[in-house]
Amino acid sequence: MATKIQIAVEDEGAGQRLDHYLAARPELVAESLSRTRIKSLIESGLVWLDEAPALAPKTKLRAGQIVEIDVPDPAPAEPKAEEIPLDIRYEDEFLVVLNKPAGLVVHPGAGHETGTLVNALIAHCGESLSGIGGVKRPGIVHRLDKDTSGLLVVAKTDAAHQGLSKLFADHGRSLPLTREYLAICWGAPERPGGTIDAPLGRHAIQREKMAIVSEARGRQALTHWRLLEKFGADREGRPVASLIACALETGRTHQIRVHLASIGHPLLGDEVYGAGFKTKARLLSFKAQQALAALGRQALHARALGFEHPVTGEALLFESDPPEDFLDLLEALRAG
What we know:
4-stranded antiparallel sheet, alpha+beta, 9-stranded mixed sheet, 336 residues, 21% helix
């Protein structure tokens, strides 16, 4: 049975966005509904405003309006359980922190209906996996690209899901959150560090790609980076490649890949955003060329993940060494 909630908008709610207003309401907090879930309910026609469907999450409210929400029971996870090995770094009754290998898709989608992390989690967690992420995304709060390796946290309960969703939506601005990645890039920035502040949205023509777009079309994206190492030299004496650490202040799709490419330093092995740099491989040593070919993916690894436990309040910090293919490329680059 769906839960029905009715709310009369008070004076202080006037002018607020519908999704923001509902996310802060105690009635919905009690139901452990994240803002993402509320947005999904609105777009699915399950939120009514003065007896008419409110299909836009950004609808501005007026005092005295009546909001009605039909909250369906969490849908069962349709994907089937699959016994896929998981590298679990931490687990309790509320959440799981794991080290995702490159090549593993996080949740089912077109072309990847089986063999995903969600399939593995259903087998590992059973019915304890949080259901408010949606049918094909149970427990998933954030994700990594298929070919990006590293640390990922998954919610096992709805309360943990809500707390983690709030944390990742805040992006470390007022709540403690650490997300650091290691990236091997073409060339090297001239400065030791900096911040890339450029909004991201879907590419206007190639819809599978993301791109830097206007603020009106995109969402704010902030990447802080620092240069760790430089490798090799071209004919002008400039580094051929470099190792860069990136800390995310936002978590947009392909954020690091697009941002680093935008400053002229796409990731080694990135066929989508670094295709124009393929010819630079000839500047690498034979051993490094072999290691890059063996990598067969973008050189990106989620190295550190730190956050406050959404239920116990404990400060948690996890670190993960890059996998063997990433380390082999680093070793070959260092050898020259």
